[in-house]
User: Fold this.
Amino acid sequence: MKIVVVGGHGFLGALAVAALRRDPAVTAIAAGRTARGDGSVRLDLTDPSSFAAVDGADVVVDVADATTTAPDALAAYCQQRGITFLEATSDRDVVTRLMARTEHEGDGAVVLGAGIFTGLSNLMAREVAARVAGARSVTWAVRSTPFSGAGTGTVKLMAAVLAMPTVRYKGGRRVEGPPVRVGPRMPFPSGEQPTIEVPFAEAEMIHRSLGVDVTVAMSPYPNTLQRVFLWTPAWVLRSGWYGWFMGAYFGLLREVFLAKRASPVEMVARVEGEGGATATMTLRADDGMRAGGVAIAAIARVLGTRRPERRGAVMVDEVMGLDEVLAAMDALSGGRREVVLG
Assistant:
């Protein structure tokens, strides 16, 4: 099985490649703007002449910075050649564009959702929705901190997200709001916490795959950050200088001062159904970035064993289940349990 990881030399990409290489049945190729020795190829997302590097792959997974370098051309190249393309970004605008790809554009599938969020988040939502008769709404939330080590792509995504309108689905309608607004209190593994609604891609993806109302929220800690974001005027959040400042600020913190600091990530999915029935599922990862890299590898590994029946855009929870991804994570993690469900 051949899996090409675009952005395989980056922060998350390198974690995914390392996990895939623990499986002797997988040939994992790291792809980037320059080749870096054996097991590496050159692939520049802005240079279609380099796309032939993925020919013959079973799965191509994009872990590059999709916020600043669009993956659309490579997704089209793979789809036209019958190669399964897996997109790992949480950038809602990129995900929305790729969601528009149809079966008429080629024989390959464009699978959306890899990592913790998106990825495990979508799988959680489907799993808990199946426990409630007549599921009508999903509220999904994540708790993490921006003060931890990560790569440049994550930092740029954080800055870009603050400029987007929030999206929720209510009564079957898509409703936009300010970039940040008060969200519901949610029962995380560490206890109930306040949240803010944020413009993550899960709102579009969960509604697309399950057809239910969706609210997406975040509980950044320390909790004072929530008040800072809520008190910041929307016009400031949308301004270019604010995005630049936040990118520079968090980039300095995460890449220099906190580069080796592991950050736990907690997620919760709550579903409401007919007659007021509810169900909840939680997930915790002590090292969110490491778990994210292994989750990307696991989802790609599962995709390598099957060819999605549907062509064009498909959500990850439409082609695999949470249990099989967690089992693949255990197999690729070097004996370490990356996530715990509750």
